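Annex B. Sample input.
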Amino acid sequence: MSSNEYNAIIFNGFGKPFEEVKYPLPKNLTKYEILVKVSLATVCGSDVHTWLGQRSFPTPSILGHEVVGKIVEMGSEIKNDFTGNKLEEGDRVVWSMTANCGECFFCKTANIPQKCEKLFKYGHMASDQPPHFTGGFAKYVLLPKGSSIFKIPPELSDEEVAPLMCAGACIMNGFDLANLTKCDYVLVQGCGALGMYSCAFAKELGAQKIIAIDPIKERLELAKEFGADYLINPSNQTDDAIIKKVMEITKGRGTDYGIETAGTPEVIRAGFKMLRIGGKYIIFGAIYPGDNVTIDSHDLTTKCLQLFGIHNYSPIHLEKTIRLMQKIKNKFPFKKLVGRTFEFSKEGLEDALKSHKSRNCLRPAIIPK
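Annex B, continued. Sample output.
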């Protein structure tokens, strides 16, 4: 590969402007590395949270961890993707958002490779040292050893695949862990991208009725297209009033599953109240330090409830998500999750983040030119 330099958009910390820099591509890949030219990257809510200074973050860095691209060069030992498909230069690929060592306690014993002791996480690493290209808002991404790569089926578009790298696979992880299968009622609190995937995936996995809650009318209407049967706008309603509505819908029993994708801990207490005896509650969005919530321990114990905290996923969940998408891509309007495309520039990225923050768009996109 030539030593030509290629653009990346650098995040330098909260309150500081983005910067366009040129980094050199690696001259020689190691035998387990892959160089990918970015085709499309979408803006995740966690990118917005980083930009707003809501969590500590290494800088300077290239944000972006929902990415698809084409292979331009492969190390000598790379032959197949995670599922055994042959890989070649020019193939469209997506990859697990983390790379792991495969040998530490969390990789081998605990089977939580996304918590690897030597974890590499795309879009969450400092980029000032080689290989530089560690995030999606750049023209290239360098996939290090330990990455799990997936050749994209031809029937799936870039727009349908990119958000799977974070939002879709995270939902699959939670549904796997909580064993979400055929059931009567699923409650989804929050209708961002995580909520839309929750509605669609739960419906496909056997949920008879889905109750979606969100304060934005347009998102509730979109949730209906993703399988929601009952829509509740919590604006100007008390928790008790919402709980009463859900209990009426479920004929006094409560929901089999509660899914928190709102990103606000305030909804969790009410979510617990809406579960049936033996119900399961999955937290996806409320993940930041200080997101404290008081849960009625009487509900937890006497109703025999189960609580699941989900952060990221293992590669098998991305594989399952891609397979599920192949099956249901025509049942739900997944392309609607990706909205306006912004130019590849520091101004374009800032505008994309503002669009996401204002909730005008579920997944703004950046396409390097």
